[in-house]
Amino acid sequence: MASLGKKRAGSSGDEGIVARVTRTVSDSAIMNTAKNAANDAAYVAKRLAKSTGKAAWIAGTTFLILVVPLIIEMDREQQFNELELQQQSLLGAPPAPINK
Predict the structure, then answer these.
(1) Taking 80 as the threshold, does the pLDDT of residue 73 lie above it?
(2) Rounded CA separation 79/58 (Å)
């Protein structure tokens, strides 16, 4: 019984049905086309992620360099205006209208 199993596994001409079907499917043109399409999709996704990362880096650094100092300066201006109004009210002067 053990010799029968060895004979089947060792002979190259006596291939099982599952092995034949698997080989036929993996060697088909449809499978090759699907593999190529998957490779192309992965390449495009990788390039898109890379360029999106670069764009996010540029947008982030631009925001930090240009917009954050502007926000800080506007906050200082608002605090200065509030302080000025508070001092005017303490001195008894009529409050000046706030221009927006």
Answers:
(1) yes
(2) 31
96 in Cβ contact with 88 (< 8 Å): yes
Kindly list the domain boundaries of the chain, sorted by start residue.
Answer: 28-91
Q: What is the pLDDT of residue 90?
A: 84
Say how far apart CA 33 and CA 26 lie, in whole Å.
11
Dist CA 81 CA 87 (whole Å): 10
The single residue listed with the structure tokens 């502007």 is 70
Contact 93, 86 (CB under 8 A): no
Q: Give residue 92's pLDDT.
A: 77
Alpha-carbon span 50 to 56, nearest angstrom? 10
Find tokens 């240009």 and name the residue: 66
| Cα–Cα dist 69/100, whole Å | 21
